Amino acid sequence: GYVVHLLGPDGSLSSSSTINLPIGKNNVLKQKLLEVVSTDEWTINNLHDQEKQPRPPEVIVNEAHKLVGTTRSYNIVNYNCEHFATELRYSNAESEQVEEAVKVTLGMTGLSITVGVVIVAFLLWKTQRSSRN
User: Fold this and answer.
1) What is the pTM of this model?
2) What is the pLDDT of residues 96-133, one digit of tens each?
3) For the residues of 67-91, what is the DSSP string, one character each?
4) Is 38 exposed, middle or buried (0-12, 13-18, 19+ CB in 10 A)?
5) Which residue has the higher pLDDT, 49 or 76?
6) What is the pLDDT of residue 112?
7) More confidently predicted of 19 and 67
8) Among the residues of 1-95, which ranges form H helices?
9) How far apart are CA 27 and CA 8, in angstroms?
10) Residue 23 in contact with residue 14, Cβ under 8 Å?
11) C-alpha to C-alpha distance for 98 and 90, rounded to whole angstroms
């Protein structure tokens, strides 16, 4: 009934929905799950179990207990609560939320560049056409 988790930069539960890029040192806490989630819905997310070998549960629990009461550097992009959880489970800190956000951002950037190139090409075409008339 307990969870070990990394707090966000303001001492609250960390959240990937934060718009700014919080950076700071935060406590690793062990709390009752229901104190952490309150009335929010929650699920167990062992997302990478199909492609990665999770560490044995006793290793995860022992490592998590060793971290309780410590502080960790927190950066929503480089090391957030999801990185913390995947590092404990798979020995590799990853955040699919961050990876997806990067893909979306790069996709939007690519779209912006494409639209910009099309606009410039159109303007050049229009300028050349006008100069012929």
Assistant:
1) 0.65
2) 877 776 666 655 555 555 556 666 665 666 666 666 65
3) HTT-EEEEETTTB-HHHHHHHHHHS
4) exposed
5) 49
6) 54
7) 67
8) 33-37, 57-67, 81-90
9) 8
10) no
11) 17
